[in-house]
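ok so for the tutorial part 2 we go from a plain amino acid sequence to predicted structure tokens. step 1 is just haveing the sequence, like this:
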Amino acid sequence: MATTATNTGTATGETVTVVVQLEPAPPDEERITDLAALFGLVILACVSVWGAKQLLNLFSINPDND
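step 2 — the prediction. this is what the tokens look like for a chain of 66 residues:
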């Protein structure tokens, strides 16, 4: 047999407004350093691939790619 709980308190009909302000956490210096290093490595990889492509095009025999 199931039992039920009954709220015997009286309702006043008042509305309560709660305002919560959230602030972002301060940036972690180690994370910023890691992201900057990662960004530098991505840029280095892009420049390396572009440079290798330009070098291969320099010695290309096919004149249509020039």
